[in-house]
Amino acid sequence: MNEIALRYGCNPNQKPARAYVESGEIPFEVLNGAPGYINLLDALNAWQLVRELRDALDRPAAASFKHVSPAGAAVAVPLSAELRRAYMVDDLDLSPLATAYARARGADQMSSFGDFAALSDVVDVSTAKLLRREVSDGVIAPGYEPEALELLKQKKDGKYLVMAMDPGYVPPAQEVRDVFGLRLEQGRNDVTIGPALLERIVTQRRELPPEAVRDLIVATVALKFTQSNSVGFAKDGQVIGMGAGQQSRIHCTRLAGEKADTWWLRQHPKVLDLPFRPGVKRPDRINAIVQYLWADWAPAERRAWEAVFEPVPELLTEAERRDWLDQLTGVALSSDAFFPFSDCIYRAARSGVSYVVETGGSVRDDAVIAAADECGMVMAFSGVRLFHH
């Protein structure tokens, strides 16, 4: 088969829509549901991400995609008891692949609402059970265990999109895109992300422990498939904050830092023990937690929380937030291009960043390196730009 019809394009009025190849066959099979245009953009970008993470780190990998950028990406690293509670998976027996998806999904639970999931390995029953209970639009993987496939086919009243990707597929060396009647062509971005990109260390501190190398690779592979400009924070084998599609690098860094801060605050003991009313659904709990972390409640807003909490808890104080955030260290940061100013370094330091990889090549590299030294960071220049549009 070299063509499939799509439900519609980016928007419902954009019909007809299709996906096709000029020669050969489409490299995936739709096992359930019907894809749309954005579904395929998410699926194909996410598949490339998890395939590259699997190859780079030799661990099962997962991604949670929304609007052609990852809300989260991760490899299989065991979860702490606190993260199991924060990710709301403490009632599940997680396989390594399910653990990778729990990390990818748990990084930014609000953004992952209605995600497209990508998994590097054959989907097992453990992963299917986790997917089945999350609000998700579809999944792509190289294959599915029979029982896992049957579980996924029951999701969304039988309409959940399940795609099987040919793991041996290699795309053409040239990419082509039509924009406003013009055809644009470029070589595919086939740069390999690995430890070699971290060899040019430019700071006074030079030690990169294995965990930092792993996390820098996770963040960098994720950036390769994130809408630019982008900055990613990673820790424990997963992205914990992604700043995607911003027009300035400081805004990327602020956004990623805010998400990383939220990820860490969700593990605060007061947050883990929030008194939810019985019957409050998972998405409502997720939204309530994030609002609780950053709220400054007015009386009317506080009354609204009576439907969610019993009793309504006291907010974290600014001192409590800052004390907890100051305990976050060892975070890895990757940038898809150079930092033009030192402001990004100082903002990253507030969110526990200890390790940085960026392209290098700015006229202000000296100032950026000096800021990294001042903050006690280890920074490498990769020499590789990873813009993605």
Give descriptors for this structure.
alpha/beta, five-stranded mixed sheet, 389 residues, six-stranded mixed sheet, Helix Hairpins, 3 domains, single chain, Cytidine Deaminase, domain 2
pLDDT averaged over residues: 95
Q: What's the CATH H-level superfamily name of the largest domain? A: AICAR transformylase, duplication domain
- Work out the strand percent: 15-25%
Secondary-structure class: alpha/beta
Strand order of the largest sheet: 3-8-7-6-4-5
Please identify the top-level CATH class of the largest domain: Alpha Beta
Radius of gyration based on Cα positions: 21 Å
Task: Please estimate the helix content.
Answer: 25-40%
Following the backbone from N to C, one meets helices and strands in this order, namely EEEHEEHHEHEHEEEHEEHHHHHEHEHE
Give the overall form.
Answer: globular
Please outline the major beta sheet: 6 strands, mixed
Spans where pLDDT lies below 50 across 5 or more residues: none
Q: In CATH terms, what is the architecture of the largest domain?
A: 3-Layer(aba) Sandwich
Number of domains: 3
CATH topological fold name of the largest domain? Cytidine Deaminase, domain 2
